[in-house]
Amino acid sequence: MSLSPVEQLKRLAAERAAALVKPGMKLGLGTGSTAAHFVDCVGEKVRDGLDVVCVPTSERTRLQAQGWNIKLSTLDETPELDLTVDGADEFDPALRLVKGGGGALLREKIVASSSKRMVVITDASKEVKLLGKFKLPVEADLFGLTATARKIEAAAKATGCAGPIVLRKTAEGGRFLTDGGNAIFDCDFGVIPDADGLALALNAIPGVVEHGLFIGLATAVIIADAAGIRVLGDLSA
After folding, report:
1. d(Cα 235, Cα 185) in Å, to the nearest integer?
2. What is the pLDDT of residue 236?
3. Which residues are designated catalytic?
4. Strand 208-211's sheet: what is its strand order?
5. Which is higher by pLDDT, 2 or 125?
6. pLDDT, tens digit, for every residue of 79-117?
């Protein structure tokens, strides 16, 4: 099956990241359309004899990896990983990310923070000067959602953000739930002038389980565009 031009770029970035994979590595497998290409690349290497152990960040990724007979583990069994490769909904020049469009932000952040390196694979459409083009996902406990939303609104206002905070729904109109059974608010703040401050403010809200600001986790971003591959950061860090 032929890939669309955008999917071809995603595949190109995934192939570059797959070149970083060495025998015996412990890998974190991200979630989303771009990360899925990386899972396929790893699966092809496993089919050809590569021996690696992988920790998936979602049930969707786990099922895809199982289809390739990739050896899987959990963070309880394998708490330290060599490399995590994942996509992003957007990234800025400081390698700060917004993630969570697919709803796996909590597990993605846990896995990324347990890795020596996190390499992001993406196409150039996700590159921004300031975060906020993509709605910021905030994962929340089901208890007290209205109160939590009010606290998110106050935290946003205190850090220079404002905009609709909407509970994510499924395509059928029901409440979207993460693999961990939590809800997600999609926060349409527009430009986020102080991503670091907003991250700290959201961290302090008891009802917030996690948020989609990934700060200080990515060591490199591989960007595929019509001109080829660009890399921000250090692939060897």
Report:
1. 33
2. 86
3. 108
4. 165-167, 183-187, 136-140, 208-211
5. 125
6. 999 999 999 999 999 999 999 999 999 999 999 999 999
Whether the CB-CB separation of 189 and 62 falls below 8 Å is answered with no
CA distance 127 to 112: 20
Q: Which residues of 117-152 are buried (b: 16+ CB within 10 A; e: fewer)?
A: bbbbbbbeebbbeebbbbbbbbbbeeeebeebbebb
- Residue 27 pairs in a beta bridge with 54, 83
- Other beta carbons within 10 angstroms of residue 8's beta carbon come to 13
Residue type at 130?
L
Structure tokens at 164: 């609709």
Contact of 221 with 233, CB cutoff 8 Å: yes
Measure Cα distances from 130 to 33, 58, 153, 234 in Å: 23, 28, 20, 21
Which residue's structure tokens are 């004899």?
49
